[in-house]
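Give me structure tokens for this 157-residue protein.
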Amino acid sequence: MIEQGQALPQATLSELTADGMVTHHSDSLFADKKVVLFAVPGAFTPTCSAAHLPGFVTLADKIKAKGVDIIACVSVNDAFVMKAWGEAHNASEIMMLGDGDASFTKALGLEMDTEGFGGIRSQRYAMIVDNGVVTTLLVEAPKTFEVSKAEVVLEKL
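Here you go.
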């Protein structure tokens, strides 16, 4: 699993924007920026939809006021699902990134096999990334939602 002080791995993430599909390369997406990245096991799932994403939507202005350039949400879903989920939650300040084949999640070492739920998914986590390097990593224990909340991330900034 990636650790604090390590650079993010090379990977691609997809985003469906008003201009069409954009493929982001992790090295350029995180270069020279302070980014809050949080991951969820699945778009439109209960905790993710009721609490995790909405917390970042609510606190986006306060998080960005701490010098954060990008707040991004990643899930092992495709970019079409991520865009629809973001729109359903008025997440216009959040970059909604799809990791459809879980390559980014696996490169981080933060995948989990949910078997009956959907196969390989991401563990729930949040991280603060400064110029491509993880400065804070907050990984949830299975079936919990404590340390990766937007309020916790805001306190860490």
